[in-house]
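User: Please fill in residues for this 271-position structure.
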C-alpha cells in the first residue's frame, strides 16, 4: 500500500500574479476552501497517512496556516462557535499528517522531490502537483488500486486536443494493459503538433519508486535552470523500468493560471 505522498509547493506561482506576489497560491480559496485542502482530502480518501510538503522560506504562510493554534483557541473561547470548532478540528487532522521540508532555491520539481529522499520509508510513494485539481473521481485512489495490482510506477494521463499538445508532456504509449491503462514507452516534453507521439498528456499525479532519487542526483539543471522530474523518469523508462499511464476518470481543472483558477471556482461551485 502507498502510505506517503509528497506535494511540491515551493513554486513562485507566476501564472497567478499579482495575487501570488503577496499570497501563496495553494491557499487561495476555491469555492470558499483553500486549494491545498482539496489535495489533502484526495490523499486522505486514498489512504495516505503522511504528506510531505516541500515549501520555501518565502511560502512560510502555508506552514502558518496549519499551525495557527493560538488564534483558533482564542477565537473559540471568545465566540464559542461550533462551526469554527469544526474547522479547527479539520486543521488539526491535516496537521497530524503533514511534514515540512524546504527548497529555498527554485530548481524545479526534480530538485523538490530530491529534498524528500531521507523521509521516504517504502519503495513507492505518491506525488501530487497542486495546480492540477481532479474532481468527481479520486485520481490518486484509482492509481493506487492499479499499483496494488501491478506493483509498478503509475502516471496520470488525460486526452487533450491535438492542437494543444505543445502545452503538455505527452506520452508515447505501448500496449494496453487493461481498460484506460497503457505501458509508457517514452514521455516527450511539449512536442510540436507534428512530432507528438499521441494526444495523451501527463497530469500531476504520480506513483514513483524511490530509485528515482539516484537518477535525480545525476541530473544537472537544464536551460531553464531547473531539474525536471521528466528527465529522471525517461532515464528509468530507457532502462526498462515499467511505467503505466492511467487515463483517469473525473474532471481536470488547472487552478494554477488566472483563467483556470476562475473556472475552477465556477466548476466546483456546481458540485
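Assistant: Residues filled in for all 271 positions:
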Amino acid at each position: 500500500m502507498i502510505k506517503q505522498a509528497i506535494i511540491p509547493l515551493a513554486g513562485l506561482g507566476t501564472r497567478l500574479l499579482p495575487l501570488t506576489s503577496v499570497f501563496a497560491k495553494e491557499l487561495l480559496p476555491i469555492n470558499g476552501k483553500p486549494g491545498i485542502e482539496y489535495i489533502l482530502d484526495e490523499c486522505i480518501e486514498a489512504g495516505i497517512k503522511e504528506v510531505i510538503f516541500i515549501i520555501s522560506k518565502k511560502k512560510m504562510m502555508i506552514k502558518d496556516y496549519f499551525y495557527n493554534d493560538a488564534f483558533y483557541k482564542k477565537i473559540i473561547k471568545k465566540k464559542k462557535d461550533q462551526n469554527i470548532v469544526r474547522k479547527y478540528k479539520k486543521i488539526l487532522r491535516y496537521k497530524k499528517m503533514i511534514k515540512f521540508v524546504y527548497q529555498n532555491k527554485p530548481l524545479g520539481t526534480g530538485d523538490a522531490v530530491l529534498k524528500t529522499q531521507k523521509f521516504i520509508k517504502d519503495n513507492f510513494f505518491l506525488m501530487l502537483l497542486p495546480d492540477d485539481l481532479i474532481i468527481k473521481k479520486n485520481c490518486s485512489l484509482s492509481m493506487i488500486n492499479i499499483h496494488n495490482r501491478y506493483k509498478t510506477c503509475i502516471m496520470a494521463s488525460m486526452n487533450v486536443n491535438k492542437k494543444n499538445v505543445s502545452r503538455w508532456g505527452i506520452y508515447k504509449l505501448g500496449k494496453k494493459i487493461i481498460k484506460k491503462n497503457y505501458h509508457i514507452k517514452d514521455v516527450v516534453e511539449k512536442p510540436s503538433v507534428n512530432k507528438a507521439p499521441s494526444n495523451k498528456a501527463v497530469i500531476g499525479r504520480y506513483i514513483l519508486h524511490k530509485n528515482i532519487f539516484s537518477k535525480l542526483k545525476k541530473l544537472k539543471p537544464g536551460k531553464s535552470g531547473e531539474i525536471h522530474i521528466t528527465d529522471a523518469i525517461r532515464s528509468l523508462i530507457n532502462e526498462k523500468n515499467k511505467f503505466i499511464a492511467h487515463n483517469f476518470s473525473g474532471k481536470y481543472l488547472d487552478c494554477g493560471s488566472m483563467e483556470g483558477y476562475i473556472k475552477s471556482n465556477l466548476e466546483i461551485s456546481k458540485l
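For context: The first helix runs from residue 35 to 45.
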